[in-house]
Amino acid sequence: MAPFLAYEDKGAKLSTPLPLVLIHGHPFDHTMWKPQVTAFSPTRRVIAPDLRGYGASPVVDGVTPLSTFAEDIAALLDELHVEHFVLGGLSMGGQIVMECYAQFPHRIRGLILADTFASSETPAGKKSRNEMADRLLVEGMRGYADEVLHKMVAPYADPTVAAHVHGMMTATPPPGAAAALRGRAERPDYRELLTRVRVPSLVVVGEDDEYTPVPDAKSMAEALPDATLQVIPRAAHMPNLERPGEFNEALARFLGQVDGPA
């Protein structure tokens, strides 16, 4: 049976290091992980899917809760015969990573939580996400992309990085983005879950991230029993693209730690 999600799958299928699975944020697609796929696929299997409603994956209207995204990831990895892996995600992708740990912790050997946060949505946040979902369905993605580009990446970021991020946002189907926004508005609180994580974790954040500031990352790292915090200088919400060298160095150190005996 063909997998539901579109995905990129690079690297040796039977490599000794654990596979690395990377979950993109909103409103992006799997190509946001290009620097990491390029850097790590020569030595390990790297899998980067397009979430439902994004990229080349099917668009589903309505509401897509984080639990559904996690179920999709599990189904894809079942199809690819990947039992154990290191799982990472950025922003919404990080929240999906937390939901995956809630659903199938026995399969996950390490967590990467980048520019994300664990708390549930506030009443004001719920209202804002639902209003934005309505707006995207009426107006499309371009106006939103123009408005938030330099919160996603810092104003001083490389113009080619900004162009890539803007292109991902404008290419996202509005119904998929709206369904995800409505789902995130109803997300659970993962803070207690973090205290029960039993695998090593890497928490990464851009120094100038306005969406998920450094104090949020510090709180997550303090809650996790075995966590490393890495603050990436001169980066905003997408340090993996803005400062790929520094991001990849932190990720390589972490993977070296996780690749030891389970």
TrEMBL record:
Keyword Hydrolase: yes
Alphabetic keyword roster: Hydrolase
Segments forming domain AB hydrolase-1: 20-250
GO molecular function: hydrolase activity
PANTHER family assigned: AB HYDROLASE SUPERFAMILY PROTEIN YCLE, MONOACYLGLYCEROL LIPASE
Protein's UniProt name: Alpha/beta fold hydrolase
Upper lineage: Bacteria, Bacillati, Actinomycetota, Actinomycetes, Kitasatosporales
